Sequence to fold (295 residues):
Amino acid sequence: MTIQNPVVWSWQYIRTSSRALGAVPANDYWQESNAGREVVIRRITLADLRAALISGVADFAANRTDVLFLCLIYPVAGLILEQVMFGRGAVQILFPLASGFAILGPFFALGLYEISRRRERDGTAAWADAFRVLGSPAIGRIALLGAALIVIFLLWLVLAQVIYRATLGAYYGLDMPAPTLAQFLHDALTTKPGWAMIAIGIVTGFCCAVAAFLIGVISFPLLLDRDASLNTAIATSILAVAANPGPMAAWAAIVTGLLVLGSLPFLVGLIVVLPVLGHATWHLYRALVARPRRA
Fold:
């Protein structure tokens, strides 16, 4: 047995698994009609959050879904490191880029919801089942919702760059060479322009993250699970948060904290954090939205 590079091993595993997907019937969604049925939102407690995380860890351990993120995290981390090490003026995008996982996470985790859905229904699943989400009859609506999150993320990157240029960037001036990471951190924490950049950036990033959280936290799992319109999915997500402000604020704090921990060092921890949070979100959806009664 030889030890392979994780990315090479992942690619070989994906290629092998993809051959098996063609032999399995697709579009086995919505086995009972949910059209026109009322979406009932439950009230949850902190105990439900704990249960969702425990179930998320169990799904992760059973399916090794870290493999799905190896080919994503390694190139992103390498790109960021390359930019920082060679001093190309990219240090100011480190935080905005890394925090983008909080905005795009619900969309990136789509395949994880599918794995958890199948494991819940059939008692077993494999991480290759994540790709079967492409056969969902709601894939068009899902893509539109994902595009909305991408727009929010791109807006956040633009705003972050504007904030930097108006604060610390103006402090450096046009003639000063691009700061190193150490210098950038020092100036951000010890100068008034740096404090302004942090304060304005936190408020702006918080608003973008809240918008993405409201429209995405429940809507993606709902579209996979039920024959719902895009408007219904988004409205359900917003109403679920509104009906459970305390627990959902706690969930957002848990997600943020785990993403911060997973980003250290250099995003490597996200290989585990993102799959666990993705699976846990499916189980959170199950706790929040009651299953429709059979006709």
Remarks:
- Residues 5 and 249 are 39 Å apart (CA to CA).
- Confidence is low (pLDDT under 50) at residues 1-11, 13-27.
